[in-house]
Design a protein that fits this description.
The structure is a single chain. This protein is α+β, with helices and mostly antiparallel strands and 163 residues long. It folds into 2 domains: 1-78, Winged helix-like DNA-binding domain superfamily/Winged helix DNA-binding domain (Arc Repressor Mutant, subunit A, Orthogonal Bundle); 82-133, 2-Layer Sandwich (Dna Ligase, domain 1), CATH 3.30.1490.190. The strands form 2 sheets. The chain has a 3-stranded mixed sheet, with no helix packed on it. It has helices at residues 2-7, 14-24, 32-36, 46-58, 101-112, 129-138, 145-152; strands spanning 62-66, 72-76, 84-89, 95-99, 123-126.
Length: 163
Protein backbone atom coordinates (compact mmCIF):
# COMPACT_ATOMS: atom_id res chain seq x y z
CA UNK A 1 0.00 0.00 0.00
CA UNK A 2 2.83 2.38 0.80
CA UNK A 3 4.25 1.88 -2.70
CA UNK A 4 0.88 2.68 -4.28
CA UNK A 5 0.72 5.94 -2.34
CA UNK A 6 4.32 6.84 -3.26
CA UNK A 7 3.81 5.99 -6.93
CA UNK A 8 0.80 8.32 -6.98
CA UNK A 9 3.12 11.14 -5.94
CA UNK A 10 1.64 11.53 -2.47
CA UNK A 11 4.06 12.50 0.28
CA UNK A 12 4.14 9.90 3.07
CA UNK A 13 3.81 11.72 6.38
CA UNK A 14 4.06 9.85 9.68
CA UNK A 15 0.28 10.13 10.05
CA UNK A 16 -0.34 8.68 6.58
CA UNK A 17 2.02 5.81 7.29
CA UNK A 18 0.18 5.07 10.54
CA UNK A 19 -3.23 5.16 8.82
CA UNK A 20 -2.02 2.89 6.01
CA UNK A 21 -0.55 0.42 8.51
CA UNK A 22 -3.88 0.20 10.36
CA UNK A 23 -6.14 -0.08 7.29
CA UNK A 24 -3.86 -2.68 5.68
CA UNK A 25 -4.80 -5.02 8.54
CA UNK A 26 -8.55 -4.50 8.13
CA UNK A 27 -10.44 -7.31 6.42
CA UNK A 28 -13.86 -5.64 6.60
CA UNK A 29 -15.31 -2.19 6.07
CA UNK A 30 -14.27 0.44 8.61
CA UNK A 31 -15.35 3.90 9.68
CA UNK A 32 -13.38 6.99 10.60
CA UNK A 33 -14.74 6.72 14.15
CA UNK A 34 -13.59 3.10 14.35
CA UNK A 35 -10.11 3.96 13.10
CA UNK A 36 -9.76 6.86 15.51
CA UNK A 37 -10.05 4.43 18.45
CA UNK A 38 -7.02 2.44 17.29
CA UNK A 39 -4.04 2.90 19.64
CA UNK A 40 -1.71 3.55 16.70
CA UNK A 41 -3.93 6.47 15.60
CA UNK A 42 -4.72 8.05 18.97
CA UNK A 43 -2.71 11.15 18.06
CA UNK A 44 -4.30 11.52 14.63
CA UNK A 45 -7.49 13.58 14.55
CA UNK A 46 -10.63 12.08 12.97
CA UNK A 47 -10.60 14.95 10.45
CA UNK A 48 -7.07 14.02 9.38
CA UNK A 49 -8.07 10.35 9.06
CA UNK A 50 -11.12 11.31 6.97
CA UNK A 51 -9.15 13.59 4.64
CA UNK A 52 -6.50 10.92 4.11
CA UNK A 53 -9.13 8.29 3.35
CA UNK A 54 -10.63 10.64 0.73
CA UNK A 55 -7.16 11.07 -0.74
CA UNK A 56 -6.64 7.28 -0.74
CA UNK A 57 -10.01 6.89 -2.45
CA UNK A 58 -8.81 9.07 -5.35
CA UNK A 59 -5.97 6.63 -6.02
CA UNK A 60 -8.23 3.57 -5.51
CA UNK A 61 -6.48 2.47 -2.34
CA UNK A 62 -9.84 2.42 -0.56
CA UNK A 63 -13.44 2.34 -1.69
CA UNK A 64 -16.17 4.31 0.06
CA UNK A 65 -19.68 3.05 0.67
CA UNK A 66 -22.60 4.69 2.37
CA UNK A 67 -24.51 3.59 5.44
CA UNK A 68 -28.27 3.78 5.74
CA UNK A 69 -27.88 6.56 8.30
CA UNK A 70 -25.90 8.78 5.95
CA UNK A 71 -22.40 7.92 7.14
CA UNK A 72 -19.47 6.43 5.28
CA UNK A 73 -17.58 3.19 5.51
CA UNK A 74 -14.34 2.49 3.73
CA UNK A 75 -12.79 -0.74 2.52
CA UNK A 76 -9.31 -1.37 1.19
CA UNK A 77 -9.00 -2.08 -2.54
CA UNK A 78 -6.38 -4.45 -3.92
CA UNK A 79 -4.17 -2.99 -6.65
CA UNK A 80 -5.73 -3.48 -10.08
CA UNK A 81 -9.02 -4.69 -8.59
CA UNK A 82 -11.88 -4.63 -11.09
CA UNK A 83 -14.80 -2.31 -10.51
CA UNK A 84 -17.19 -3.68 -7.93
CA UNK A 85 -20.59 -3.20 -6.41
CA UNK A 86 -21.13 -3.27 -2.66
CA UNK A 87 -23.85 -5.45 -1.15
CA UNK A 88 -24.92 -4.31 2.33
CA UNK A 89 -27.10 -6.24 4.78
CA UNK A 90 -29.77 -4.03 6.34
CA UNK A 91 -29.94 -6.22 9.47
CA UNK A 92 -26.35 -7.02 10.50
CA UNK A 93 -24.48 -4.38 8.48
CA UNK A 94 -22.20 -6.92 6.80
CA UNK A 95 -20.82 -5.70 3.49
CA UNK A 96 -19.32 -7.57 0.59
CA UNK A 97 -18.24 -6.63 -2.89
CA UNK A 98 -18.97 -8.34 -6.14
CA UNK A 99 -17.12 -7.52 -9.33
CA UNK A 100 -18.98 -6.38 -12.36
CA UNK A 101 -17.19 -6.32 -15.71
CA UNK A 102 -19.97 -4.10 -17.08
CA UNK A 103 -18.75 -1.20 -14.96
CA UNK A 104 -15.22 -1.56 -16.36
CA UNK A 105 -16.68 -1.44 -19.89
CA UNK A 106 -18.67 1.70 -19.11
CA UNK A 107 -15.60 3.40 -17.62
CA UNK A 108 -13.51 2.52 -20.70
CA UNK A 109 -16.22 3.84 -23.02
CA UNK A 110 -16.44 7.09 -21.08
CA UNK A 111 -12.65 7.45 -21.27
CA UNK A 112 -12.84 6.93 -25.04
CA UNK A 113 -15.42 9.73 -25.19
CA UNK A 114 -12.96 12.03 -23.44
CA UNK A 115 -14.17 11.88 -19.84
CA UNK A 116 -11.39 12.00 -17.24
CA UNK A 117 -11.30 10.98 -13.60
CA UNK A 118 -14.47 8.91 -13.92
CA UNK A 119 -15.67 7.38 -10.68
CA UNK A 120 -18.76 5.51 -9.59
CA UNK A 121 -20.64 4.39 -6.50
CA UNK A 122 -22.91 1.40 -6.76
CA UNK A 123 -24.42 -0.24 -3.74
CA UNK A 124 -27.30 -2.60 -3.13
CA UNK A 125 -28.95 -3.19 0.23
CA UNK A 126 -30.91 -6.21 1.29
CA UNK A 127 -30.95 -8.95 3.91
CA UNK A 128 -28.01 -11.35 3.76
CA UNK A 129 -28.66 -15.12 3.64
CA UNK A 130 -27.66 -15.63 7.30
CA UNK A 131 -30.03 -12.92 8.55
CA UNK A 132 -32.80 -14.15 6.24
CA UNK A 133 -32.50 -17.65 7.76
CA UNK A 134 -32.69 -16.25 11.29
CA UNK A 135 -35.68 -14.07 10.37
CA UNK A 136 -37.47 -17.05 8.82
CA UNK A 137 -36.90 -19.08 11.99
CA UNK A 138 -38.25 -16.30 14.21
CA UNK A 139 -41.23 -15.39 12.01
CA UNK A 140 -44.58 -15.99 13.69
CA UNK A 141 -46.78 -18.72 12.32
CA UNK A 142 -49.07 -17.22 9.70
CA UNK A 143 -51.83 -19.80 10.03
CA UNK A 144 -54.65 -18.37 12.07
CA UNK A 145 -53.40 -14.81 11.87
CA UNK A 146 -56.55 -13.89 9.97
CA UNK A 147 -58.59 -15.23 12.85
CA UNK A 148 -56.67 -13.12 15.32
CA UNK A 149 -57.23 -10.02 13.19
CA UNK A 150 -60.97 -10.76 13.01
CA UNK A 151 -61.09 -11.38 16.76
CA UNK A 152 -59.32 -8.11 17.55
CA UNK A 153 -61.60 -6.24 15.15
CA UNK A 154 -64.65 -7.59 16.97
CA UNK A 155 -65.87 -9.68 14.03
CA UNK A 156 -65.40 -12.97 15.89
CA UNK A 157 -66.40 -13.86 19.38
CA UNK A 158 -64.12 -15.88 21.58
CA UNK A 159 -65.58 -17.88 24.40
CA UNK A 160 -63.81 -19.69 27.19
CA UNK A 161 -67.03 -21.36 28.36
CA UNK A 162 -66.63 -25.07 28.80
CA UNK A 163 -62.84 -24.92 29.07
Amino acid sequence: MLERVKSAGIYLTAQRRAIIKVIAQRLHAFSVAGLSTEPALRRVSPVCIYRNLLLFEKISLVKRSFTRRGGFLFQTQPAGAPASITLACRKCGNRESITNPGIDRIQRELAQRGYASVEHWAEFAGVCPACARVSAQLAPCSSGSGLLQQLSAGRLEYSTAGQ
